[in-house]
Amino acid sequence: MSTPMFERAALIGLGLIGSSLSHAMRRGGLARTIVGNAQSEKTRDTALRLGLVSSVYATPAEAARDADLVVLCVPVGACGAIAGQMGPHLRAGAILTDVGSVKGAVLRDVGPSVPKGVHFIPGHPIAGTEHSGPESGFAELFDGRWCVLTPPQGADQAAVDKLTAFWRACGSHVEVMDAQHHDLVLAITSHVPHLIAYNIVNTARHLERVTDTEVIKFSAGGFRDFTRIAASDPVMWRDVFLNNKDAVLEMLGRFSEDLTALQRAIRFGDSDTLYKLFVEARSVRRGIIEAGQDTAAPDFGRQHGTPKQPGT
Amino acid sequence: MSTPMFERAALIGLGLIGSSLSHAMRRGGLARTIVGNAQSEKTRDTALRLGLVSSVYATPAEAARDADLVVLCVPVGACGAIAGQMGPHLRAGAILTDVGSVKGAVLRDVGPSVPKGVHFIPGHPIAGTEHSGPESGFAELFDGRWCVLTPPQGADQAAVDKLTAFWRACGSHVEVMDAQHHDLVLAITSHVPHLIAYNIVNTARHLERVTDTEVIKFSAGGFRDFTRIAASDPVMWRDVFLNNKDAVLEMLGRFSEDLTALQRAIRFGDSDTLYKLFVEARSVRRGIIEAGQDTAAPDFGRQHGTPKQPGT
């Protein structure tokens, strides 16, 4: 085996992303040793049992000590406090990164705790599923997906290059941009989509004239797609919205403005406007498939023809 | 082989649903002869080539003549005119049904053209993919999905029972309800979800500070799910919104009201409200999976780990 990129990688948090990173690192032989930390004893035990880490620690500081790569894989809102605990224990020359869906807030919250000589380079792999926890990870999660790095001004270029090479070795494409722009782009490609998915599930649950049973039975008409996204980790998503408020509110304003125009087109039977808009939307789907960011298989490749008996 | 349910079934329209019905009928041996009609010569040729029909006709009237089952598989807005042409040619005792996503408008538009002695029973199989055309159909499309029948007042019970048995033999569960209630239920489980999917794709395309390329590259964060629904047939969906205006506007009003409340919770950092709502949404997903209406596999069972090179 060639020399691994890192001697000792510490995963702080062992949920979907942390566990997938362990799988991807082991697939690629990217770290000689992988250690970890998780808040709950149950997660720590599972991570050991699955071989995600060779040692597991009850505190982030213990896990991060002596590591040359430390990856924060926790909800965005938890990063600041953890960095505060770890800071004094980080080794000079180490790379500290994270995987959070918001980057401005992470820079703001983590930055002050990073000692001189430690390279802090926030990151965001744009990949996931609706499942959570240490058993939900898999090595292929990052394959073909984009990882965005948002190094702060004056970041060490060698460290940025090394982290770029690391994510490529995990299967990702890498793009570097500033944190503010990341937060704006992700507000429209991820945060607002999740918000409207949560919202329609909520609306559907509180109708007087349509029962919850009906909503579930007839969900194959489109609604069920939204429930997948709305089944994502609630703490992670609460933290995203609390920490990317401005960009989310801006994009939500645009969404609502456009929806009002569409509502008006329906009210007045403006057939041409509806048709034109629906045709244009198809081209975006084609672009995503051509860019390798989704499957061309119908219905996401969902399995048909092996139905369970309906519960109702 | 046992006696088929129908001697001669006529499929008026040979797109995704019409072609899938042909596959399902042949799988189950449900009709001795299947004939069809499509507006375009190309579709007619394809249908013959694929063996979807044994004879194909350039007009609905020719196809429907002598059939004991006639299924309208065309966009809702086209049903009225086609029924007008077919009416005089329908055979006494035949069952006339459709597959449209709106039922009130079909009753209103088709009803007057149905001769005495023909059993008109509107239907809606809640199944589909984002693909269109005669080559997109497959026999398993209806397996485990619900089909709603909305017989008008005074409909012949034997005909309703026969159509129920037909859809069960196509793999579906069947529920009977009145057309108005169907339209309200589908407004929330299908029509509004499609509308907001179309809308967010449209919003994303017209931003000044985020490029189309960025939207596509970083779509795996959630946005790409919406583009699948927004890639559905534009004519079909234009007709849905034009023909289920009242129910769509009612449900859209509820959606917008709830979204405004959620926006306010984000603005004021109301962490508890966000968390509570996100936790509750998970339970709806569980209900859908338990009812056999979606896969429990992460990410809809999307394939990971066989990425294409990105186009950008």
Report on the structure:
The structure is a homodimer of 312-residue chains. With 312 residues, chain A is α/β, with parallel strands linked by helices. The first copy, chain A, has two domains: 6-177, NAD(P)-binding Rossmann-like Domain (Rossmann fold), CATH 3.40.50.720; 181-293, Orthogonal Bundle (6-phosphogluconate dehydrogenase C-terminal fold). The first copy, chain A, contains twelve helices and nine strands. In chain A, the strands form two sheets. A six-stranded parallel sheet of chain A has the order 3-2-1-4-5-6. In chain A, strands 7-8-9 form a three-stranded mixed sheet, covered by helices on one side. In chain A, strand 5, helix 5 and strand 6 (119-120) form a beta-alpha-beta unit. Chain A is globular and about 65 Å long. Chain A starts with 5 loop residues before the first strand and ends in a 22-residue tail after the last helix. In chain A, 57% of the residues are buried. At the A-B interface, helix 7, helix 8, helix 9, helix 10 and helix 11 of A face helix 7, helix 8, helix 9, helix 10 and helix 11 of B.
